[in-house]
Amino acid sequence: MTALVAFAQRLAVLTALVSLDTATPWDIVERLNGPESGTVRSRLAQLHRAGYAAKVGSHVERRGAGNTVWRATDTGRVLVAEIGGPS
Questions:
Q1: Residue 40 contacts by C-beta under 8 Å, 6 or more apart in sequence?
Q2: If we measure between CA atoms, which residue out of 16, 60, 67, 15 comes closest to residue 38?
Q3: pLDDT confidence of 16, banded at 50, 70, 90?
Q4: pTM of the prediction?
Q5: CB-based burial of residue 43 (10 Å sphere; 0-12 exposed, 13-18 middle, 19+ buried)?
Q6: Among candidate residues 76, 32, 41, the one with its CA nearest the CA of residue 61
Q7: Which of 8, 10, 19, 28 has the most CB atoms in a 10 Å sphere around its CB?
Q8: SS3 readout for 10-44
Q9: Which DSSP category does 85 fall into?
Q10: HSE-CB of 76 using CA atoms within 13 angstroms
């Protein structure tokens, strides 16, 4: 995978997270209608390390698995707004 693809995926995940307000990785998978949950989880971890997403809780999904609930940080929201996404 190229750095550009990973960047595009992070941006897509962050934009989806901003539009959903709070979300589990599965919520983001459904919103984006495409990437695997493992890809979304990896991108969320990268966004978290960069200060663009924060863990805000946990939720047991209908599949029975526990998932972290995420929210975009103020910095993440500003980034998405600057590129013309939802705020």
A1: 13, 25, 28, 29, 32
A2: 67
A3: very high
A4: 0.88
A5: buried
A6: 41
A7: 28
A8: HHHHHHHHHHHCEECHHHHHHHHCCCCHHHHHHHH
A9: -
A10: 26
